[in-house]
Amino acid sequence: MRSIKNSFFYLTIIGGFSVLIYWIILKGKMLEIGQNIVSHQSGKGHWSDFITSMSHNLQNPLAILLVQIITIILVARFFGWICRKIGQPSVIGEIIAGIVLGPSLIGMYFPEFSGMLFPKDSLGNLQFLSQIGLIFFMFVIGMELDLKALKNKAHDAVVISHASIIIPFSLGLGLAYFMYHSFAPSGVEFTSFALFLGIAMSITAFPVLARIVQERGIHKTKLGAIAITCAAADDITAWCILAAVIAIVKAGSFMSSLYVMAMAVFYVILMLKLVRPFLKKVGDLNATRESLNKPVVAIFFLTLLLSSYVSELIGIHALFGAFMAGAIMPENSKFRNIFIEKVEDVSVIVLLPLFFVFTGLRTQIGSIDEPHLWKITGLIILVAVVGKFFGSAFAAKVVGHSWKDSLSIGALMNTRGLMELVVLNIGYDLGVLSTQIFTMMVIMALVTTFMTGPALDLINYVFRAKPTIIPEEISSKSKYKILISFASADKGKTLLKVANSLVKKQGGNTIVTAMHLLLSSELHSFDVKDHEKETFLPVISESENLNQKIVTLFKVSNDIDSEITETANHGEYDLLLVGLGQSIFEGTLLGKVLGFTTRIINPDRLIDKITGKEGLFENSPFDERTRQIIANSKMPVGILVDKELEEINRVFMPIFNKEDGFLLEFAQKLIHNNGSQITVLDVLGEIKDNREIQESVRSIEQIAPNHIMMMQERIIKKEFLEQQDLMIISLESWKKLIDSHSPWLNNTPSVLIIKP
Q: Phi, psi at residue 708, to the nearest 5°?
């Protein structure tokens, strides 16, 4: 009934007001009498009028801009994908996409299509939009710099960085001396031309370098840390020099530029001393994704835009202001990551490719149409490589790095990419660089960026060493080898106690390796060495207390579980010991879901969560990852559930079936090496009917009659459990305990679950 009523109301309203609209239009037509009405119809027919209308719409500036953006994104993503496939950073593909869409290719062979897609009167809109993209991108680059870490860790890096600037800068000035008459635009002073050529030679593309370092998995190594630090110091220094150069060019003379630079210094001090503390307070109050609401985001975006505006007003370019705004953002890494996510998607995917294509539209490779011009281009590339590559490598060697690391640093610092294009476009807009020299420098930027990957591969090949996943002292097959993997020092100490109790009296016939793995996303590269030292120091101290020699092994990995099994299998260990809770999964979603601390209240739920019985991991990648260590390890695996384990004097082993007989090997080791008291619990009466297990027990009794005891109880008293230090149980038996819903599980001590 209600639906009929609604339908009637709908038809009445629509029908009635449609009649009213029609009547108003008819009456309105009468008002046209005496008016000079211009008809938009061509008189050639409705289809022709439609085509004319469509053609007019296509020439609308907004329509042109939208089709330009669509084309640019598609072509840039395509060439970026090709470059990634051949091991090059995608930024190279995006630069090539710009050159392809510009007059060097499409404009040369398909001029009509190029003129329709990129008409000259539309380039202004494209330029301004690309500049907005650059402003946001430089804001992100500023946020990705860790100024505190740079201040504390960059002593050698600053030496290398500044050497890598002054050497190519000087060579660039020398090159400008020979090129000024032939290539400088008319009316441009030598100082302006030389300074821009020098800064173009000395720039390093920090974002491209950081991406290459990360993709190669060396961003947490000593080499990666020093390279990123050098690039960061280079970035800050180069932008300060560029701001000074722009001030000199715009002011017209060095003396006039001093006023501009004085204002720039005042602006920087204001940002550091006034704006930065204010933003820190705002960031501290809004460090979570939920609290970072629109008004708060608006504050930071206004800071970005005002900073860019002020720096442009002063005369040192808006991009410096954007970079500065990013650098003074709150140091809270969580906050920065959230904010970078908000800015980066639009700036990198949509707006930044516009800059590459706009640069490509300015690049006219056809203007280098004579052999001597290509020789000049080659000379520019040679000077750039000698100055930056070898200058950085020489400085790195002087401050004490190996030849391999020094040359690798040189190869990375020689990367120019996007930052070079920014400098070149500024020079082109200021009229300091001609189209011809601009094109040559773009080619240089492409070549030096492209050569980074192959140069690193060549350096690694020349200085290649025999690949080893584990230390050489572990390679012996005649010794009993235990690998313990831990994430925190406390867990490492506990696992070391377990390992020591198994091999204490075997002396030189055993090797215990303590391995600490760090997720590559958990710590800044500057802090890796300190983290390694702080983590291993308590473990090494514990090994000295136990008089247990250990081999330490530290790795940075993107996949900890795979790294554990790969290292264990490659080293042919006899036992792998890992921890649950705040151990190998500490800091991951798994640790949060399991909720383990050193006090596990209800261990009977532990195996449910490991095996997925509770359904917590049925649709989660952690189900597979948790199983991976157990499934892929070729040796026995011990998973320790730690409940403040201090000693391993009293141990009990519940045995459910004959397959659990392998546990007696661990009982024998604990008795022989640690003098432990072992209680073997025959849960289902299986042992009395199994001759093999009985013989194993008797053989232990003959050697140590007072250290092993048999029990056949289905109900264990709480007092007995509270007296025990450790329960050792097989993975399958643990499952059976869960199925039997044994009430004494709530009172178990620390548990060592073993997969044979």
A: -140, 140
